[in-house]
Amino acid sequence: MMSRSVASLRAAVRPAVAAPMAARASPVAAARVRFYADAAEGAKAELTDDEKKIADLEAKVKELTKEMQYMRADYQTLSRRSSEEKAKASDFAIMGFARALLSTTDVLATALKHVPQPIEKGSPLATLFDGVELTQKALHKTFETHGIAPMDELLGAQFDPNLHEATFQVPSHVAPKRTDGDAPAPGEVIDVAKGGWTIKGRVLRPAQVGVVQME
What we know:
Elements: H1 2-113, H2 124-145, E1 148-150, E2 164-170, E3 189-194, E4 197-199, E5 202-205, E6 207-212
Parallel strand pairs: 2-6
Antiparallel strand pairs: 1-4, 3-6, 4-5
């Protein structure tokens, strides 16, 4: 009987003791929960700030990259324009000198044209003719080095005011016939008094020509 009563007493005491202990443990657990929750919230806030900084840096990098591309394009444009202006200045400087030399080549061409043919080999006239011809070839070689070239195929071409300067016109019925026997067309070049010249594709001197009168 005695042992049974003690056992019953212990069973009754346990819940009574456990209840206050549980009550004491609840604030501690709650504090821990709040601590971990606050830590998680702080980490989340810190992560959000870092992400924002990364996004800002990425935006700045894109902006700087775009500015560098614009600067590179501007530099390339400036460099190209500078090269073009330099080339134009160089061409302009040589154009006046080249025009002055064209009169010399005209004189040489006229001299060679008026030498009677055939020339006796070994004669003083042949030596003079060869010397003038070599001078003309050397001058043309110098012209070629600087992009100066004569206009080709002037006879038979249609008159172009950008390339030709008409020194005279003749009616079509008195104009000399072509080599194939056909009559030249109105506006066709039938005579070249002075050849035309170009420098790097631009007209240096228009050709002085005679043309068939336009109807």
